């Protein structure tokens, strides 16, 4: 009798072990796994040109309400129909993620990408739960914002761009708190720290909303997200953004430099202008106009008295947003200074090459 009990127990243990093994082998794990620290160097705003972060989860239920900023959505279920969203360059770093260690979607998509010939494919297996747990900013999609505009639920949409740009048009229902003046305007935020806040600005090349979101979290707000595609994403999907209602007259109006004239001067007589790039140092270091110096917008107020007045100053950035704000600040603090700003979308190469596109108004 004892031996029968022993045999039964042994058989049960073997069966239990087999079940556990089956659970562990429920899906094939992709071999090249990266951690949170690696992802933080890849998932950047503005996005890296040599990398693409891909959320393999379903769009409406998972990606739309919360994803890693800058990530695109290619749900594994429709991967084969969505390969056109992948970069043409097969050496581009592809970083897939989904819903954590028990989620097979990112692993499946990574194997599919490798079969397509992509040579630098990695999986963030800890995925979205780990990203949130370790304090990463959470992004929402354009479709999600549209839902909030159509059916407001108390979420506050906040445009982090300069007032001049906000007055030209913004997401309907948004309020304006320019990032540069965030500390002085924090009283515009709701008193209830649990109120959902979504910050946005001038698209994927603009990091003002990310900065404001970090500041809001530091103030104790517990439900803070960003909308990285911002006003350009809204306009592309739903047409011209809503104009701000009856904007108050500004004390100083903008003074843009003609794009063609500016580019011609850069080539023929660059020494006749002082070009100041007001983006953050890390963005400036990735590429800038060859003759531009760097003075981040956050340091301009302290440095404006040191700006030379011997020739015209042109403030530049990547979208025209921060450069217009630099213009306003310089004119306010030093009214006699001869300043202009470049109101254009600029893409910078790592070799300091550049492509300039006049901004549509």
Question: How would you describe this protein?
Answer:
- With 361 residues, the chain is an alpha/beta fold.
- It folds into three domains: 36-133, Rhodanese-like domain (Oxidized Rhodanese, domain 1), CATH 3.40.250; 140-238, Oxidized Rhodanese, domain 1 (3-Layer(aba) Sandwich), CATH 3.40.250.10; 259-358, 3-Layer(aba) Sandwich (Oxidized Rhodanese, domain 1), CATH 3.40.250.
- The protein contains 14 helices and 15 strands.
- The strands form four sheets. A five-stranded parallel sheet has the order 5-9-8-6-7, covered by helices on one side. It has a four-stranded parallel sheet with strand order 2-1-3-4, with helices on both faces. Strands 11-10-12-13 form a four-stranded parallel sheet.
- The longest helix has 23 residues, at 2-24.
Which features would summarize this protein structure in a list?
single chain, 361 residues, alpha/beta, Oxidized Rhodanese, domain 1, 3 domains, five-stranded parallel beta sheet, four-stranded parallel beta sheet, 14 helices, 35% helix
Give the gist of this structure.
By secondary structure, this protein is α/β, with parallel strands linked by helices. Helices cover 35% and strands 15% of the residues.
**Strand order of the main beta sheet, please?**
5-9-8-6-7
Overall CATH class of the largest domain: Alpha Beta
Note the beta-strand portion. 15-25%
Structural class: alpha/beta
